[in-house]
Amino acid sequence: MSWERVKMGDRITIRPAASSDVDLIASMWGEASRALAQRGIDQWQYPANVEKISHDIECGTAYIVHDFGVNLGTITVDESADPEFWTPEDAPDDALYAHRVIVLSVSQGRSVGASMLDWASRKARKAGKSWLRVDAWRTNAQLGRYYQRQGFTHVRTVDLPHRRSGALYQRPAGVVTGTGPGYVGLEAMLYDSDGTPLSEAGGWGA
């Protein structure tokens, strides 16, 4: 058992990413990419988009997940519905969207991903949305099954020749599984489609 595992507690912290975290998030992407490749999965086999990460941090939508100073993962939650995937019939403005959901190997066995999605689901409800949505890599069937275990329903799969993502999932905002560790969600800023900031109060989460 590693020192990090010994030191980890019963709760994790989800905090807004700072401008200094760009390289950290990019390195998390790289670790996830290598782990996927080792499992024979072709997802994310290209460098992280540092410009996009910087933009998300500036908008207050990128988060770092950690425990006792040990980084466990990252998640970005925003109102950015990909227009190639989500149609007007989906009411795209009525959802928050989770992107770049990464759980590092150091947190293996703790169901940290479940807590991250529970936190995002509550965030969607606080923002007055009906859904938390994700678009997953089409060829990563394991990921699709994971989201379904987390209470997501498969909406459809959009197969575009220039996109590898497109397996669409959603779960009602506010629904939580409670299968992961408790968490502290720190305050951050969200912006609606008009650029108006939406504030979220931080606090203890179940």
If you had to describe this structure to a student in words, what would you say it looks like?
- Strands 6-7-5-4-3-2-1-8-11 form a nine-stranded mixed sheet, with helices on both faces. Strands 9-10 form a two-stranded antiparallel sheet.
- The chain is built from five helices and eleven strands, in the order αβααβββαβαββββββ.
- The protein has helices spanning 3-7, 22-38, 50-59, 112-126, 141-149, and strands spanning 11-16, 62-67, 70-78, 95-103, 131-137, 153-157, 165-172, 182-185, 188-191, 197-200, 203-205.
- It has 206 residues and is of the alpha+beta class.
- The relative contact order is 0.18.
- The model is unreliable at 1-7 and 198-206 (pLDDT under 50).
- α2 crosses α3.
Strand order of the largest sheet: 6-7-5-4-3-2-1-8-11
Indicate the structural class: alpha+beta
What is the element string, with H for helices and E for strands? Answer: HEHHEEEHEHEEEEEE
Integer average pLDDT: 89
Furnish the topology, listing elements before pairings.
Blueprint lengths: L2 H5 L3 E6 L5 H17 L11 H10 L2 E6 L2 E9 L16 E9 L8 H15 L4 E7 L3 H9 L3 E5 L7 E8 L9 E4 L2 E4 L5 E4 L2 E3 L1
Parallel strand pairs: 1-8, 4-5
Antiparallel strand pairs: 1-2, 2-3, 3-4, 5-7, 6-7, 8-11, 9-10
Helix pairs in contact: 2-3
